[in-house]
Input
Amino acid sequence: MSRVKLHIPKPLPFTTRIPVRIQDINYGGHLGHDALISILQEARVQFLQTLHCTELDACGTGLIMGYLSVVYLAEGHYGDQLEIGIGVSEMQGVSFELCYAISAIRSGSRCPLAEAITGMVSFDYARRKVQALPEALKIKLELYRVTGSHG
Output
C-alpha cells in the first residue's frame, strides 16, 4: 500500500496553538484520530474568526466539509501544545481547500505530527444546497493563499 503524501507548503499564513487534553488521548496512550479532527475544526473556527466569519455565516454562505485527508507523522501526547498552521491551497466556484500543518511544541522544540487538507464547500443550510462562493469570501481567503500543496 502506498502512503498518501500531501506536500503542505510552509510556512502557512495563519497559526494557532491548541493544547492536547487528557480526553484527547486514546487507549494507545497518544492523540486519537477523532480528537485530532476535532482539534482541526477548532483551528478552522479560529481561522474563520480572523476573517469575521463562521462555519454558518461566511460572508453570506454556510460551509460544509466535503472531504478530509490526514497524514500522520508522529504521536501526540498529553500536555503537548499543538501549533497548527493553516493556508488556503485552492479555490473553485463552490469550494476551497484548507491545508494544515500540525506540530507539537515540546520543551521549546517543534515535532511535526500531521498534515491535513479539508475541502470546504459553500452551502445554503436553509435550502440544503451547494452554492457559489461569495466574492467577499474569495477576497478574504485570497489573503491566506499558498501554493505548492498536495499533488
